[in-house]
Amino acid sequence: MEFTRRGAMALSAGLAAALMLPASAVRAAVEDKIAEFTGGAEAGADDITLTTPEIAENGNTVPIEVEAPGAVEIMVVASANPTPDVARVSFGPLAGAQRLSTRIRLGGTQDVIAVAKMGDGSFRRAANTVKVTIGGCGG
């Protein structure tokens, strides 16, 4: 068997395509989770604040905070984690504030997305990219 430049190019193109499949599958899973949460409704960008660090030195403990006044439920997903579900919190009528503050684990640089279901049935969405220098999910 002779190894040619054309064969090497075809092999590298196939490898690149194979490496892209898992990332696109995870992105599709994240969008499916969001669509399941919202029932397919569009989400606005106002009345929700997602606070994350721009750079996280260690992906094992990344602090996040979501504030959505008037929300009855908040869902947080991490777009490139092996398991994208991070948190889902419901607020009762006696909740003093509709705020979620926690630390999450991120496997690498990725988007953290928060979606809030408001009291009137509408949805709000915010996303931030967090650059992780040392992954927390086995990376």
Quick summary of this structure?
The protein is built from 1 helix and 9 strands; from the N terminus they run αβββββββββ. It has one helix at 5-38, and strands at residues 43-44, 49-51, 55-56, 62-67, 71-78, 85-90, 99-104, 110-118, 123-132.
Give the number of DSSP strands.
9
Structural class: alpha+beta
Number of continuous helical runs: 1
How far apart, in Å, are the first and last alpha carbons? 37 Å
Task: Give the SSE string.
Answer: HEEEEEEEEE
Shape: elongated
- As a percent range, the share of strand residues is 35-45%
Tell me the helix content. 10-25%
The unreliable regions are: none
Rg (C-alpha, Å): 19 Å
Major sheet attributes: 6 strands, mixed
Q: For the residues shown, what is the average pLDDT?
A: 86
List keywords for this structure.
alpha+beta; six-stranded mixed β-sheet; three-stranded antiparallel β-sheet; elongated
